[in-house]
Specification:
2 copies of one chain form a homodimer. By secondary structure, the first copy, chain A, is of the alpha/beta class. The first copy, chain A, has 2 domains: 133 residues, ATPase, nucleotide binding domain (Nucleotidyltransferase, domain 5), CATH 3.30.420; 165 residues, ATPase, nucleotide binding domain (Nucleotidyltransferase, domain 5, 2-Layer Sandwich), CATH 3.30.420.40. Chain A contains 10 helices and 12 strands. In chain A, the strands form 3 sheets. In chain A, strands 3-2-1-4-7 form a 5-stranded mixed beta sheet, sandwiched between helices. In chain A, strands 10-9-8-11-12 form a 5-stranded mixed beta sheet. In chain A, helix 5 crosses helix 7. The longest helix of chain A is centred in the C-terminal third of the chain and has 25 residues.
């Protein structure tokens, strides 16, 4: 009877919703701007509207919906369904989003951290299909992470597990938004790699003719620019150090990398894989797959649907 | 009927065996030198003899024994019960130790990595009693680690998980025995802290009147020696960086520290805790307990017994 799932992936810029079957196939998807600046209530209203539009356009009845999985920026309390003030959303101080959405939609709702949802999506239907454990790193504006062990997200004691982006890589390194210094995020994110590029140009007294973007760096690297290639290589090495640490600590079967930075392809992945091999223990590297994500922007909605299935199967029911 | 457990904790220097009940209470314990230099077969023979002596001195019959848990230096394949060439034991290249001991003793045998066994022991009966997740670091000759999540050791894809000692702390730092540079072990182990102390003395052109040992460093620190305190503080900071990384990645409820280095007490733990607080995300530090191990040298045999119980309950039976 409850053979369908609704899910959402809410970000500071865009929101996605999807209608899926229990096999994780997306039957209908929508994407709209979040307009986060208009505040919390407006966003929730728009999200509910998107759920209704997704149902309608997908030709599905809400009574067929087992529940709704929602990927949302952390920190969250997934057990109690509470959002705590995500850095890129204003006015979300301790919002009981699960209860609000359950009231609005009349179906069970499960919240999952957005990076965890992406990891779970890749595990279920993407690059990680068939593995037992993986760690997913999202290299975008920041560096997000998710740890999936034996098919489930490892949340930790306070729901913060998976914050690989805030691993200290260089003790007195770059200042991070979290207050720490030398976090992986300050080197491996999109802005991190651009900072590295700018630093190299400055040291060589070169003034860039156009603004430095990830896309342009990809173009320059392919055209053979040695400084660009060096900036990407240094980033790959830094990511490799962090991933080697993860491999030694958790020994996952797979590391999945997603986000804009992975578009740099082999210029990034080559030195990254080499560094992991150099640093991690042989047994931790044996059979370790380091791959690009496969689901693109759908990872979040697919993973959020999976989170719903796992939780509703576990006992929470509507 | 099978209400008792035998267990062992085998090290390069000493071997311990114990007779326990299923509540994890040690009814009888033995400790003898391993004499590892006499080779593999001699060691196995002595271990079997110790099991028999433990039974006899404990007044127990082998028919009462549910099984035998054995903590052994890694790398191991715990699922297949194989020992692969541990760095401090010669001649142990791919030894099917589980099968050998099952043949000798006629009861089911479970192998567990020694650092994991210690972690599991502390979780079950020591500092971690009542927690749901902990990470244990053994600061001894090297730095060993064990990850316990929801009551079970996380082994990873190839059984190597928990190798926190080989986390890169300083990219071009001290050479480690594993071939990498800047591993936590080279700063946080007993020899690591002594190296730090020697470095400080050299820089201050001071020749130590006696050999530097952990015990003496503890004495000097208590007597107010500022260089010794500084060496210990630097070690605490380095361990703190590593532990903050673990806290961000796994968000455990507790970090348990064991081994000789923890005898340095507050001189080490103070700066260590401060550094974790400074580096880790607030949610990862919230409620995080960083404590000394409680079981001392018994952690290994108690944890090995727990590993046996968990595995035999899971299906392997004799």
């Amino acid at each position: 009877m409850h053979s369908l799932i609704l899910s959402a992936d809410v970000g500071g810029t865009n929101m996605r919703t999807a209608l899926l079957n229990v096999k994780g196939e997306v039957l209908k998807g929508l994407k709209r701007p979040s307009m986060a600046h208009k505040g919390r209530e407006a966003l929730i209203k728009r999200l509910v509207q998107m759920f209704q539009d997704t149902l309608r356009e997908g030709g599905a009845d809400i009574r067929k919906i087992r529940g709704i999985g929602v990927g949302f920026p952390g920190p969250l309390d997934t057990e109690r369904g509470i959002v705590f003030n995500p850095p890129n959303l204003k006015g979300w101080e301790e919002v009981h989003l699960r209860d609000i959405l359950e009231q609005e939609m009349g179906r069970p709702v499960v919240l999952e951290n957005d990076a965890n949802a992406a990891a779970l999506g890749e595990y279920w239907k993407g690059a990680g299909k068939g593995t037992r454990s993986l760690v997913c790193l999202t290299l975008g504006t920041g560096v997000g992470g998710g740890v999936v062990l034996e098919g489930r997200v490892w949340h930790g004691a306070k729901g913060i597990a998976g914050e690989i982006g805030h691993m200290t890589l260089v003790k007195n390194g770059r200042r991070c938004g979290c207050g720490n210094r030398g976090c992986l995020e300050t080197y491996g994110s999109a802005s991190g790699i651009i900072t590295t590029m700018k630093g190299l140009l400055e040291r060589h007294h070169i003034k860039p003719k156009e603004a430095i973007t990830l896309e342009r760096m990809g173009k320059w690297a392919r055209a053979g620019d040695s400084l660009t290639r060096r900036a990407i290589r240094e980033t790959g090495v830094n990511l490799g150090v962090g991933i080697a640490n993860v491999a030694n600590l958790l020994n996952p079967e797979m590391i999945v990398l997603s986000g804009g930075v992975t578009n740099l392809g082999g210029y990034l992945f080559g030195p990254l894989r080499e560094e992991v091999k150099k640093r991690a223990l042989p047994k931790a590297v044996e059979g370790l797959k380091i791959v690009r994500a496969e689901l693109g922007d759908n990872a979040g909605v697919i993973g959020a649907a999976r989170a719903l299935l796992l939780t509703v199967a576990q006992g929470r029911n509507g």
